[in-house]
Amino acid sequence: MASITPSAHLADVRYEIRGALARRARELETHGREIIKLNIGNPGRYGFEAPAHLREAIACHLHDSEAYGHEQGLELAREAIAQQQRSRGARGVDPERIFIGNGVSELIDISLRALLQPGDEVLLPSPDYPLWSAATILNGGRPRYYPCPASRGHLPDPDQVEALITPRTRALVLINPNNPTGAVYPRELLQRLVAIAARHRLLLLSDEIYDEILYDGARFQPLAAVADNVPCLSFGGLSKVHRACGYRVGWMSLSGDPALGASYRDALQLLAALRLCANVTAQWAVEPALHSGATIGSLTSPGGRLHEARRAVMEGVAASAYLDLVAPAGALYAFPQVRADRIDAFDDESFALRLLEEESVLVVPGSSFNVPRSRHFRLTLLPQPAQLHEVFVRIERVLARMAGEQPVAGRVALA
């Protein structure tokens, strides 16, 4: 019998956050190595807990969760999401334009499947969260990347974005606050991007899963409020702000002129119905999560665990002879860069492998986020600050060894 050939669509799909490095880390663990895993933003693995009132809401409704639910989600949950979106200034939002899914990941796939014809193009940030690229490719589309380099604070240049548009471009994706960089987009920048979408009749897709995770006075501006009548699909969920990744509850909200988005809304509903419904049990946590006040602020304000973890990362970079960093203004990650004047011939994948093998620290290479010739790596802010201080000691050791191995005058110089 011939071996099974996987789909050719997968040839250009990457997801190194849970890829070969993570598999190698598991192999090392089976041999007794203790690995510091900084590759995934998974709060529950670092001792964070979902708020008690979310657990109580689920427990109280177990007997109501045994049948299939509405394909778009529980009415109570969708109404809570619609109220949140309207309170933020979104136009044309009601429960019939809200879709709840098994995490934002499922909804990203549905949103692009409902939109794309083979060969259609989607504008994506570089770096991006790689699921956006994967979902574009797997649904027959073509990613077109607009750069968000450290030299601009990891923010895009609207003129560069517009220059990428062709007759096949269908959508513009934003990730704000950004994963992996932590950039938070100012209102003026969002207004310029909305104007581009309006001129070229593009659908706006705004991944806002980290909307309330902000540091040092950074302010989150919802895209839907700026978009006004331009069709905009905004994504949120319980996984990050409410530390409930395992609940697998995400949502997307379609705003803008209902007439412009009517056919697309119906396509989303068809795809939602084909998968029957999202997990019913965890949806009971949505209404209390959105109506009982934010609980993340004590963690992100000075003295809070996430704030102090971020401080530890910034101090580690400041003390390094090899690293630079644009301080993350939001989200759960930092995206340091290795300085070219200290290590010229730098390969981010080789560095990440050496850091794992030599120092038992797992990070994600920057190239995994669709950054060409990357000198970056991503690490999560979720560990305890003391552990992050130790991580940067180990990172510095590996970088020092790499610097000592740089070619000098046709030979290898050893440290």
Short summary:
The protein contains 15 helices and 16 strands. It is an alpha/beta fold. Strands 2-8-7-6-5-3-4 form a 7-stranded mixed beta sheet.
Query: Helix tally?
Result: 15
In the CATH scheme, the class of the largest domain would be: Alpha Beta
Percent range for β-strand residues: 5-15%
- Report the major sheet: 7 strands, mixed
Which word captures the global form?
Answer: globular
CATH topology of the largest domain: Aspartate Aminotransferase, domain 2
Q: What oligomeric assembly is this protein in? A: single chain
Tally of separate domains:
2
- What is the CATH superfamily of the largest domain? Type I PLP-dependent aspartate aminotransferase-like (Major domain)
Calculate the mean pLDDT score and round it.
93
CATH architecture of the largest domain: 3-Layer(aba) Sandwich
Q: Give the C-alpha Rg.
A: 22 Å
Span from first to last CA? 53 Å
Structural class: alpha/beta
Strand order of the largest sheet: 2-8-7-6-5-3-4
Poorly predicted runs are 408-415
Number of strands: 16
Helix content: 25-40%
What does this structure look like?
This protein is of the alpha/beta class. It is built from 15 helices and 16 strands. It has a seven-stranded mixed β-sheet with strand order 2-8-7-6-5-3-4. Strands 10-14-13 form a three-stranded antiparallel β-sheet. Strands 1-12 form a two-stranded parallel sheet. A hairpin with a 2-residue loop joins strand 15 and strand 16. The model is unreliable at 408-415 (pLDDT under 50).
